[in-house]
Fold this protein.
Amino acid sequence: MGDLQYNSPKFWGKGIALGRVLLRLEKVSKIYPPSIAALKNISFELERGEFIFVTGPSGAGKSTLLKLIFGLERPSSGRMFYGDLDYARLHRRHLVHLRRRMGFIFQDFRLLPEKTVFENVYLGLEVLGVSGSVARERVERILKRLGLAARQNQKVKTLSGGEMQRVAIARAVVREPELLLADEPTGNLDPERSQEILRILEELNAEGITVVLATHDESLVRERHRRVIALQEGRLFHA
Amino acid sequence: MLKKVLLEFKTHQGSYGLTFFILTFSVTLFLFFSSLYYHLYLFSREAARSLALTVYLAPDLRPQTQKRLLQKFRALPGVKEVRLVAKREVLRELQRIFREDPEILQNLDLSKLPDFLEIHFQDPLRDLPRVQPQLRKLEKEPGVLRIRYAQSWLGRLWHLSQLLRRLLYLSMALLLASLLFLVVVTVNLTLEKQREEIEILSLLGASPGYIGRPKMMVAFVLGSGAFLAAFALLHLFESYLQGALAGVIPFLNLRLSLLPTNYLILGTGGMGFFCALLSWLAVQRYFS
Ligand SMILES: Nc1ncnc2c1ncn2[C@@H]1O[C@H](COP(=O)(O)OP(=O)(O)OP(=O)(O)O)[C@@H](O)[C@H]1O
Ligand SMILES: [Mg+2]
């Protein structure tokens, strides 16, 4: 099967065949110009329903790995499969469709500060083509669940860091993604808040969403018996 | 969708407002000149249709010579009809005109009155210049006194209207080019202002279409609205224009209300679609 076939819009009508393995990386490297090797020869598989941590010190390549998976960056070499689709070199136009199956919680939230909590979360659904009362109901449900119901008509710029973090999570999970990528979702939070966020993500995972969580906070990882992808200077060490 | 369009307009009120103003202004000017052209064209075409050639014949020609000449003129290319106007007919006509004072005619020497041929062409503006050399030869034929050519100012008017038409095409091209520039720049401006938002939307998986659709709708409304507004403006000043111009250019009868409804619909829709298309192109360019 050539890449050409996947690059044709027709392909997207059929969807992607998902087996047990949701994501597979084969010898993926990322070199930023001029010669910063952010990732070197990374290979691993991610099964559906898994919850894995990506750990490593600052600069190890955690964010780069998540961005590659999400299609924000392209690998310099290697192959990446989403289901049976090799998307390492997929056209940007089609990548958008793939992105709609995932949720990304950004380290810096990437919310629209001038819009309300509700509008921000609603946008996450609307770009998927879900709108109207169905979308509104889903947004309200997720906001309630994340303890944001009282804040829904407040502008995002007036929220605290922890609240913004939860809005970012709500926007990602309201889409009921197959794969949730969380980049330091507890980065700016105190330990108590961090645990709370993790509990929410684990709950979502229990409901079937596959989660990849990048963090440099070892304490979060330690007491949980989850698979860990440990990165160091762009190389992979299995823990 | 309507809410999105309204929001889009509200967010970029200034840019869109100014664009609308300029669009309306340029379309108004364009429509004004096209209606000038249109009426000049109608007038000169109507007038040109009646152009005829008059051939004065020598007095007291023998009927055979008259008939031979008549045949020669009839053989010219493009001739629709050749009519012989005999002296008697002219006399009768004169008598009718001067019914009230017949003594005027008694003082004239009417025996010198020539017969003449009136030659009508199918398309005088096309055919007359074509038969010019033949006419010059025919003028030397015995029995032909003189050929009076059709009123030449009409021909010139016709050529003027042709020139105007070319100018109109040119200004149409200019109008379209400036529309292109204006709309693309405006849409780019709005995209640039929303850069951060657009970046976030694309992260969420929004297609260029999702971001561009409200802009296209706004562009459509602006385009067709500008055309309607321009039309209304001209309509509003119609009586004023009529009063002001009627004295200067006598044959001009500005009747904008006569601009056919089809053209109104075509113009409104066309402008709308054109602007929407431009906005779409601008969005595509931005995302490529
Ligand atoms: N756009 C870029 N251009 C050049 N170099 C980059 C770029 N993005 C990341 N890098 C480099 O790649 C390496 C890995 O960066 P990355 O952001 O993935 O680290 P990280 O593990 O997420 O770190 P942190 O814990 O601080 O977020 C770093 O050395 C960084 O400087
Ligand atoms: Mg990072």
Summary: Residues 111-176 of chain A form one domain. DSSP finds nine helices and ten strands in chain A.
